[in-house]
Design brief:
The complex is a heterodimer. Chain A is mainly alpha-helical. Chain A has one domain. In chain A, 71% of the residues lie in helices and 4% in strands. Chain A has a two-stranded antiparallel ribbon with strand order 1-2. A two-stranded antiparallel sheet of chain A has the order 3-4. Chain B has one domain. Chain B starts with 6 loop residues before the first helix and ends with a helix. By secondary structure, chain B is an all-alpha fold. Classes of the chains: A mainly alpha, B mainly alpha.
């Protein structure tokens, strides 16, 4: 065995033993009442943040930070990377092109008749959901209006953000239906009246459940070893991917459905009508 | 509101998302799509160019192969014509040679016949002269002397022959 491997194994073993001793010796520590913690995570009654004189949930600050990160990144890419794009792409160019192409293809695939605006919308929505959910991993701290420190979670774990995105997606679908088929398209969209609620609460429920599981795990210090790797990182990554895919897929599917042109009824020929009458 | 739903915050989220969506559209989505469309157009153009070049090359190849096959058939025709001419020329030469040979033979035959006739004519005259001389001798002198002379001459010639051996 190499010397470096021996050192690595030894250090790992020592750390593990130290952690186990710590777990056994430490008194179980509870950071407040679990019911209160869960209630705060859902309702955000006690952790409002002051934003330009308005009392907002931490989710809105997360959404703002997401917007700043994404817009700055997009601006940097636009200024420095896109002018240097080559016919044979490098790794970074390939990554950017793959992301754009994924949403563009999804829009074209699910809504073949009208997809220009849909592609742009699901691209923005997808990026927003994915990046904002991953923001949970960083665990940014912010000062609440009460003066306490608040950890910024995923914006979509806030019901207001989920409703905003769900309703906006529904409005996008409605606008596509009206643009393509007029009143028929509007009728087709309004037929799915439960869509904004289902999309909003699907997002909210999925991301909130992840948040609650994480809160539960972190509530007890004994569970704060190893387990957060699974529930914190993997759950968040999976949530980010799955919820992005679900929302953009649902939006593009319904958009494609309402923008599909009306099928013209085949006119019966006179001879066919005569033959049918003679029978 | 139940679940702490706040319309003001919903509108704030909508406003925030609209800014994000617009920025993403103008900074990332549109330029990247434009670049990809231009690249697709570039490759389509290249493909069309190479397709036209290929078609041109195919046409040239067909033309050249046609020309080659025409040259081959022409060569074959020329060769057969040349062979035909050669055969005719050979036939002509052989005919001429045969005619010349016939003429030579004919001439030789004529010459030989003429010589034979000439020899025969000469020999007849000699015989006639000899007969005349003999008759003259018979008529004019004794035949004995002639006979002796003949024997002497024959003996003399035999001796000369023996000496030579």
């Amino acid at each position: 065995m190499k010397k470096s491997s021996i050192i690595f194994v030894s250090v790992t073993a020592v750390v593990m033993v130290a952690l186990l001793i710590g777990i056994i010796l430490l008194e179980p520590h509870e950071s407040g009442d679990i019911t209160e913690t869960m209630k705060d995570a859902v309702l955000h009654e006690n952790d409002k943040i002051d934003f330009l004189g308005l009392k907002v949930n931490p989710g809105f600050i997360s959404a703002l930070i997401t917007t700043v990160i994404v817009v700055v990144f997009a601006a940097v890419v636009r200024i420095f990377a896109i002018p240097r794009f080559k016919l044979q792409p490098g790794r970074f160019q390939l990554l950017i092109e793959t992301i754009v192409n994924f949403f563009d293809s999804l829009a074209k695939q699910n809504s073949p008749h009208r997809n220009g605006f849909l592609g742009a919308y699901i691209f923005a929505a997808g990026i927003y959901i994915f990046v904002s959910t991953l923001l949970e991993l960083i665990g940014l701290q912010w000062v609440a209006a009460s003066g306490e420190s608040v950890t910024l979670g995923a914006p979509l774990a806030d019901i207001n953000a989920a409703i905003a995105l769900g309703v906006l997606s529904y409005l996008v679908i409605l606008s596509g239906g009206i643009a393509s088929n007029g009143f028929v398209g509007a009728g087709r969209t309004l037929k799915e009246f439960s869509l904004p609620i289902s999309m909003s609460f699907r997002l909210f429920g999925a991301l909130l459940s992840g948040l609650l599981v994480t809160e539960l795990v972190y509530h007890f210090i004994a569970l704060s070893f190893v387990l957060p790797v699974v529930v914190g990182v993997l759950f968040t990554l999976l949530h980010a991917l799955i919820q992005t895919y679900v929302l953009v897929m649902l939006t593009s599917l319904f958009y494609g459905e309402v923008t599909e042109p009306k099928k013209k009824k085949a006119k019966k020929s006179k001879s066919g009508a005569v033959a049918a009458a003679s029978k | 509101m139940p679940l702490n739903i706040d319309w003001q915050q919903i509108l704030l989220h909508l406003f925030n998302f609209c800014i994000l969506a617009l920025a993403l559209y103008f900074l990332l989505y549109k330029p990247v799509k434009k670049f990809m469309a231009e690249r697709t157009a570039h490759y389509k153009e290249e493909a069309a160019k190479s397709e036209s070049l290929r078609a041109e090359a195919e046409a040239l190849k067909a033309e050249y192969s046609e020309k080659l096959s025409a040259v081959d058939s022409e060569l074959e025709l020329k060769r057969s014509e040349a062979l035909h001419e050669l055969h005719a020329y050979r036939e002509k030469l052989v005919g001429e040679a045969e005619a010349e040979a016939d003429a030579i033979v004919e001439k030789a035959k004529k010459d030989a016949s003429r010589e034979r006739k000439k020899i025969i004519d000469g020999a007849g005259k000699e015989i006639a002269d000899m007969v005349g001389a003999a008759a003259e001798k018979i008529v004019l002198g004794s035949t004995r002397n002639a006979y002796e002379d003949f024997l002497n001459a024959a003996e003399k010639s035999i001796e000369e022959e023996n000496e030579l051996r």
